[in-house]
Amino acid sequence: MEIKVTDVPDRKRYEGNDQDELVGFVDYHFRGDKIVLTHTETESRHQGQGVGGGLVRGVLEDARSRGVTVIPVCPFVRSWIGRHPEYSDVIDQKSRDEILG
């Protein structure tokens, strides 16, 4: 499955699509100049197929390209970052310390 991750500001979320089908999303809001990731959801029939990880990767890549710092509140996002410390540069310092020690 190839997931295309797109920011949808009107809905305050990133959406993941595979061939024009919504497969999941990550909700967010801004706190000052930082983006707070609050919830990740994968459509039930796509769970266990790497959709959540693909979504998080796409969101963090987008944040990195925009120079935006991320505050991960969502437990799934925090867990994923713990397994992928190569994205620590986009995570706010407090969260980085909590997740990665």
Automatic annotation (TrEMBL):
Keywords, sorted A to Z: Transferase
Pfam families, per database record: Acetyltransf_CG (PF14542)
UniProt cross-references to PROSITE patterns, sorted A to Z: GNAT_YJDJ
Hydrolase found in the keyword field: no
Every N-acetyltransferase domain range: 6-92
UniProt xrefs under InterPro entries: Acyl_CoA_acyltransferase, Gcn5-rel_NAT, GNAT_YJDJ
Name of this chain's protein: N-acetyltransferase
Domain of life, source organism: Bacteria
Gene Ontology MF annotations: transferase activity
